Amino acid sequence: MAAEGGLLLGIPIVLTIVAFAWEVRRRFREDVGSIWWIRMGAVIGLVAIALQSIAEFSLQMPGNAALFAVVAGLAIHDDRRVTRDVVGTNL
């Protein structure tokens, strides 16, 4: 990362990682019930993918990158959002 993009690429990436970690930490503090375990599994998955990426370039494969995106979404998902009930509506 440093050799390819220098500070112009490194600073935004580090800021994004810090913002993501802060948001995940905030979500952990708000969690109650079984969603805590789902979020914990997602964070452990992200750590595992990050550790593997130190030695390999697995995130360059589309399937692994998609899995990483889904797991990251699970880690920051806001479960308090109200969803509209569509049962009984004509779609």
Overview of the molecule:
With 91 residues, the chain is an all-alpha fold. Helix 2 packs antiparallel against helix 3. The relative contact order is 0.11. It has helices at residues 2-30, 35-55, 62-76. The protein is 71% helix and 0% strand. It is globular, with a radius of gyration of 17 Å. The protein starts with a helix and ends in a 15-residue tail after the last helix. The protein has one domain (2-76). It contains three helices and no strands.
Main features:
single chain; 91 residues; mainly alpha
In short:
This protein is 71% helix and 0% strand. It has 91 residues and is mainly alpha-helical.
Unreliable runs: none
Report strand %.
under 5%
Percent range of helical residues = over 70%
Biggest sheet overview? none
Describe the protein's topology.
Elements lengths: L1 H29 L4 H21 L6 H15 L15
Helix pairs in contact: 2-3
